[in-house]
Amino acid sequence: MAEITKDTIIMDVLKIDQGTAAFFYEIGMHCLGCPSASGETIEEACAVHGVDADELIEKINDFIKDK
């Protein structure tokens, strides 16, 4: 499985494991179904929500590493 990076599109992360949605909800991103939000990169979403992208990516990669 490919490692998630800052350039990974949010929808691609959700396709890998829908359980990752919880990480986006935690940063205040509640509109995962809308095209503009799901088409953003992780870095773009983190910039909008004032979150450290590296921390989020680490959490997601830890979550999916054994999937």
Q: Compute the gyration radius: what is it?
A: 10 Å
Total number of helices:
5
Mean pLDDT: 89
Show unreliable segments.
Answer: none
Structure in words:
With 67 residues, the protein is an all-alpha fold. 55% of the residues lie in helices and 0% in strands. It has one domain (10-64). It has five helices and no strands. It is globular, with a radius of gyration of 10 Å. The mean pLDDT is 89.
What would you say about this model in short?
The chain is 55% helix and 0% strand. With 67 residues, the protein is an all-alpha fold. It has one domain (10-64).
Distinctive features:
67 residues; single chain; mainly alpha
List the helices and strands and how they pair.
Layout: H1 10-16, H2 21-26, H3 35-38, H4 42-49, H5 53-64
